[in-house]
User: Fold these one by one.
Assistant:
Number 1:
Amino acid sequence: MKLVKKSVLGVCILFLGLDLQASPAVTVHVRSEAQIAEGNVVLGAVAQIDSNDHEQRRMLENLILGESPKPGNAVVWTAAELGRRLRPYNKVLQGAQLKIPDRITIRRGEVGLTRAKLKLLIEEALRARTLPDSSWEVQVVDLQWPQPGVVQPPNGNVQVVPPLTRPRGSANLEVQFLNDGKVSKRVWVGAQVKYSAQVPYAQHAIQPGQTIQPNDVFWKKQDVTYSADNVVTQAEIGTVRSRYHILAGSSISRIQVEREPALRFGEEVTVIAGDDAFSVSTKGISQQTGFIGDLVKIRHQQGRETKMLSARVIDKGVVRVTY
C-alpha cells in the first residue's frame, strides 16, 4: 500500500490509502514520549487512538509493534522505524489518519502498574463496596488505560477508591498512587463492569402478604448489570413477604417484597443475655417494631422494678441484650 507523507510543524502525518481532504473515522496520534510497563510495545501504549467504533479502537490499541526495552532502559524510534513496524498492519489501518513525530522515546519503568493488576484492584474495590450479597460477582470486562505505562512509585503502592453506588455497566474510578503513605498522584480510569447474581424465581404462585420461604423459590445465575432494582438475596428469603401476587416462574425483585417485622410494638419477646458458652433468657415487652438486625428497646419487669434494655433482634420474637 502506498504511504503519503506530509510534514506539518515537525509532525509527520501519514494517510494510508486516504485522500488528504477526507475526514477519516479513525485517528491515531503517536506521542513523542511514552512510558511502558509491559513486555511488548502496543500501539495503545504510545498513541492516542480516536474511533467511534469501540471494538475497532480496542483492536488497534492491542497491535504489537515490538518488544519493550529492558526495565529501567529507553529506546528511540525514528518516524521511518515506526513506519516499518506499522507496515504489517496496513490492511487493519486502511483509511486511518496517522500522526507521528520525527522520533519517539519509549521508556520502561522499573516497577509498573499493569493492566492486569489494575483490573484486579478495581474488581476488589467494587466487591468491597457494591455487592449486596456474597453470591454476587463482579468482573471488569474492559479497561480504558488512561496513561499507558504509568509507573508506580518504587517505594509505594496503588489503590482504587471504591464508588459510592453500584455502577450500571460503566464506571469512572479514581486511582491513587501512594508514596510513603501519601497520595502522590491521581488518575481517573474508565471501566466496563459486569455483575452477575443468583436470582430467585417463584416455584409457584405467591399470594400478597405471604412470607417467602426457601421452598417457594428456585435460583438462576444471570447478568444483573443493568438491573435498576436489586434482586432479593438468599439471606433475605424467609424474612420478606410478597407485596403483590407473584406468578409462578417469574423472577422476584426487591420492589415486589417487603421486610417482615421480626417483632412488633407491645409484643412479648424472649430476651437472651450472655454468649454461646453461657446464656440466660427471660421475657420482655418490645417497645418498638423491628427487623432482624435492628437495635430496639425492650421493657423488662424484674420484681417491682421496670428496666429498659437495648437489645439486638436475632430472630422472630427473640432479642439479645447488648452491653
Number 2:
Amino acid sequence: MALTPDDVVTKQFQHVRFKEGFDPDEVDDFLDEIVVEWRKALAENEELKAKLAAYESGDAPAPAAEPVAAEPVAAAPAPAPAPAVADAAAPGAASAGIIELAQRLHDEHVAEGLAQRDQLVADAKAQAASIINDAETRGREEIAKLDRERTQLEGRIAELRNFERDYRAQLRSYIEGKLRDLETTATTSGSTPVSAIGL
C-alpha cells in the first residue's frame, strides 16, 4: 500500500481504557507501514541518484536522434536533471516529513490523552468531594434530628417522673386521709353499739 502524508494525518488509533495512550499493537503496525514506505522512498532515492550520476558522467546512452536534430533536442533535455534532482530529493524529504508529522501527531495524541486523564481525575475528585460533602451534611442532619428526639424524650421522661411523684403524693395523701377517716370512725363507733350501727 502506498502511504501518503494524508494517511498519517487521518490515521485514527483506538483509545485503550484503563491505560494511557493508544493500543501499542496498532501503533506498532502503523509505524511498520511507515518504515516500509520510508525504506522504499530511500531505495528509490538512491536509484535516482545513481541514474543521475550515470547520466551526468555520460555513461547513459543518449536518446536516438538524427545529428541535425540532436542540437535542439539536446538543449531541451539539459534542464531535465534539475527536476530529477528534485524528484530524487522529494522522497527523502517526504519521508522526513512523514516521520515529523507522525511524531507531531503522536505528541498531540499523548497531550490530548494526558489532558483527558487530568480532566477525568479532576472530575472524579470533584465528585468524591461532593459525595463526602453530602454524606457529612446528612450525618450532621441525622445527629441534629437524634439530638432533638433525645431532648423530647428526656422532657417526656421528666414529665412522667413528675406525674409519678405527684400521683404517689396524691395516692399517699388519699390513703392517709382514708386511714384517718377510718381511725376517727373507729374511735367514735367504739361507744356506739353494733346493733345501732346496723350491722
